[in-house]
């Protein structure tokens, strides 16, 4: 029986060695796959970062956001301050002028309705120009807005 025990012991040692080799191969394969996944994730993150920089660098988003209420205008100023573009600054100044003109015209009772309609038309035309990527001053006081609000 002792011979059977030795054979059984040798068989168990062989099986244990095979299991160790299999576990080592599996570990190496997992390590390789993890490394490949990590490289793919880094590449995807770099691509996303570059795409985001490209989207925000043209200023078109800032210009469009500046048209969305007074809060949107404030958000556009914050966005433009970190990555200042001429296009974004142009529309921030245009919309500040339209906002101020709207506030001033709201105090004049008789002119109020007509002024708001004219301002709405100017705002829509400005938004269309921003969406089209063109820097067109509004028909009211667009050129003056650019001069008056140079600091923005």
From TrEMBL:
TM helices/strands, residue ranges: 61-78, 114-133
Domain of life, source organism: Bacteria
Region (Disordered): 1-41
Protein name: YtxH domain-containing protein
Stretches with biased composition (Basic and acidic residues): 17-31
Keywords noted in UniProt: Membrane, Transmembrane, Transmembrane helix
